[in-house]
Design goal:
- Helices cover about 55% and strands about 0% of the residues.
- It has eight helices and two strands, in the order H-H-H-H-H-H-E-E-H-H.
Length: about 170
């Protein structure tokens, strides 16, 4: 690589790697970045949390981090109820999710959290992709989870239902 070659910005690159790979290895760096953000915010004075939360990059990371974690755990189709909702995520990843949830609630409030939850429901796939001869036959008309499942069913099958008290 030459001195003049430009690297893509770190955050978008880590998000894309995580989305594309959907595995512990591909998300390691992104989750590490989110853990660092969490540490930095919690290490700041309490009265600074809301002003820091208004910084566009921080706001984006807190919202996008939670949404991506929900989507990664959900997978390509609705998971079965129970432990399937965690997919490949380990305890440390669940702790990270809970800490991001706590920060979102502290900075932006309960109403914003509920709006984020409902918006995320619309991003979750409600059915699996069907491939025939290497071509996705239903990708143009695939339904999202909120078209196939009730809000209660989505909640039960997603990380949103994780009882964070046990991790914080």
């Amino acid at each position: 690589m030459t001195k003049n070659a430009q690297r893509s910005a770190l955050y978008p690159r880590l998000v894309e790697n995580c989305k594309t790979g959907n595995s512990p290895g591909s998300c390691y760096e992104f989750f590490t970045l989110l853990r660092k953000l969490n540490q930095d915010l919690l290490g700041s004075p309490q009265e600074c949390l809301v002003p820091f939360g208004e910084v566009p990059e921080i706001q984006k990371a807190l919202k996008e981090g939670v949404q991506l974690m929900i989507q990664l755990a959900w997978g390509e189709k609705p998971p079965a109820a129970g432990l399937a909702k965690f997919n490949w995520m380990e305890t440390s990843d669940l702790v990270l999710y809970c800490r991001l949830k706590q920060l979102n609630l502290q900075i932006y409030g309960e109403e914003n959290w509920q709006n984020l939850r409902l918006a995320t429901y619309k991003k979750l796939p409600g059915e699996a992709q069907i491939f025939q001869d290497g071509i996705c036959t239903n990708c143009e008309r695939i339904k999202n989870a909120s078209q196939v499942l009730s809000d209660e069913e989505i909640w039960v099958r997603s990380l949103f239902s994780l009882r964070c008290e046990q991790f914080l």
